[in-house]
Write a structure and sequence with these properties.
The longest helix has 18 residues. The two termini are about 30 Å apart. The chain has five helices and four strands.
């Protein structure tokens, strides 16, 4: 059975440690989003460091276990120290496409998406990529980065696609996330993932 891997990446307008109210609001929103997503039907797991409490470290310095070494797309040109890192990235695993679409476009995450331009730089790069993995496979940060870079350079393919232009595990176009069909019609998102 195939599961859906979802990688997101965005460059923040300010470093994660910036004490500005906007950055504090971003962190507070994340504190609401992650627990709700983790309870969503179809959610399986997301990358978490094995020791998240290590002070004075960045995402680059943490041990991510089976999710692999933390890496970023080649276009990320901001800092990598605790004082300069200005990025947000997620890597998650879902039972299927419809569950991921519903998880992304409902609840606290949908509200966060509405504010994404407050926190993230507008870029000419995709902000998320999906791909199918076999049951029992843990996607890695490197997998996500490679596929996001592929999507940016070559566009949608069976091994690198978006929620809006999804494909089935067999590589055929999927109607499960087509906004004009089926159940998604009633909850068409006003924003794209970010």
């Amino acid at each position: 059975m195939a599961h859906l891997a979802l990688y997101t990446f965005g460059v923040l307008k300010a470093p994660l440690t910036d004490p500005a109210p906007l950055v504090r609001a971003f962190h507070a929103t994340g504190a609401d989003v992650y627990p709700q997503i983790a309870r969503h039907p179809g959610y399986l797991a997301h990358a978490k460091p094995t020791d998240p409490g290590r002070a004075g470290t960045t995402l680059f310095d943490l041990d991510w276990g089976a999710w692999g070494e933390f890496v970023v797309p080649a276009w990320y040109d901001r800092g990598r120290t605790p004082q300069t890192a200005a990025l947000a990235a997620t890597l998650s695993l879902w039972t299927d496409l419809r569950s991921a679409v519903d998880g992304v476009y409902t609840g606290h995450h949908r509200a966060a998406l509405a504010r994404r331009h407050d926190w993230f730089e507008r870029a000419g790069h995709p902000t998320h990529v999906c791909w199918w993995v076999t049951d029992g496979t843990v996607p890695t940060w490197e997998d996500g980065v490679r596929r996001l870079e592929y999507l940016h350079t070559h566009g949608t393919a069976p091994h690198a696609f978006t929620l809006q232009r999804a494909v089935t595990p067999e590589g055929a176009p999927s109607s499960a996330a087509t906004w004009e069909t089926g159940a998604c019609r009633s909850r068409r998102p006003s924003v794209e993932p970010g």
